[in-house]
Amino acid sequence: MAGYDNQQNSAENFVRGTVFDIQRFCTHDGPGIRTTVFMKGCPLKCLWCHNPESQKTKPELLFSPNICIDCKSCEKVCPQHSARAILSDELRTGCGDCLACAKECPAGAIKAVGKLMTVEQVMDEVLKDVDFYEAGQGGMTISGGEPFAQSEFVIALAQKARSGGLNVCVETCGFTGRSNLEKMLPFVDLWLWDIKDTDPVRHLANTDAGLDIIMDNLKFADAAGAKTLLRCVFAAGINTDINHYSNLAKLYDELVNCKGIELLLCHCLGNSKLEQLGRTDLQPDFKPSQHQLELARSILGNRVTDIR
């Protein structure tokens, strides 16, 4: 990419972030073909979370007992010599997070989620598909979890990508300090802004986070000229009501630089991961009905740019 400098500077040598996935050839995370970098850690605890493995910042273990071949390779490398017992415990008590068992498991029954990476290491992966970005105005999208849970790293990453001419998108819920947002604004071409709910009481109850900071940051970014696309997960029984739809329409109309609203229909995709994490807080079926979807369409109208 024109202008990209491969030489690490001092900041990039020291700033590291925990990444839980890097997906190539993404077509729904901003314009064109993109590489999406998923950061670990999130201050919210949404009841319908599709990526529960992203909630904690530190690396974790996923365990699938159904494909375990009982070879005991994990126990041989476990410092406590009890890897399988630990992994079967719903609270994972006693695990020292060394992740040695994941490296040794021949069946792939144990997988580590989360890898500590430098800005340069992430950019090396992102730039593998640079020719596709140039052809379709694509680039890099930083997602999560919540990117601002690792604010120092993602700001450095966005700055590095933009210095090389890459298009940068950030998917965020906006729950962060104003100073982090101000530092990030110059390096982002499009913000995919997650709006979980527009009812403050429900938002707090269902995400464990207040709504005021999110809305204040969104309006601040809009006033600063930031282009946004509102992403709204619809979870049946949570936010599939007329008031929420009307509030979304009003919010869109108030924003000067908002490009549209994406409706993301909730599916219980997180349950299998919750089980692999040893958690018992499984999700009910939040998939919205056709009636709820049609109601949303009737109120939001042509503000909606995508439904999936």
Give your account of this protein's structure.
It is a single chain. The chain has helices spanning 10-14, 73-77, 83-88, 100-104, 119-126, 130-136, 151-163, 178-184, 200-207, 212-223, 242-254, 271-276, 290-300; strands at 16-26, 34-39, 60-63, 110-113, 115-118, 139-143, 167-172, 190-194, 228-234, 258-265, 304-307. It is α/β, with parallel strands linked by helices. It folds into 2 domains: 10-56 and 117-307, TIM Barrel, CATH 3.20.20; 60-113, Alpha-Beta Plaits (2-Layer Sandwich). A 9-stranded mixed beta sheet has the order 5-1-2-6-7-8-9-10-11. α8 (178-184) links the parallel β7 and β8. The two termini are 32 Å apart. Residues 2-8 have low confidence and may be disordered.
Summarize the structure.
This protein is an alpha/beta fold and 308 residues long.
Describe how the helices and strands are arranged.
Blueprint: H1 10-14, E1 16-26, E2 34-39, E3 60-63, H2 73-77, H3 83-88, H4 100-104, E4 110-113, E5 115-118, H5 119-126, H6 130-136, E6 139-143, H7 151-163, E7 167-172, H8 178-184, E8 190-194, H9 200-207, H10 212-223, E9 228-234, H11 242-254, E10 258-265, H12 271-276, H13 290-300, E11 304-307
Parallel strand pairs: 2-6, 6-7, 7-8, 8-9, 9-10, 10-11
Antiparallel strand pairs: 1-2, 1-5, 3-4
Helix pairs in contact: 5-7, 11-13
List keywords for this structure.
about 20% strand, two-stranded antiparallel sheet, globular, 2 domains, about 300 residues, 11 strands, Alpha-Beta Plaits, single chain, 13 helices
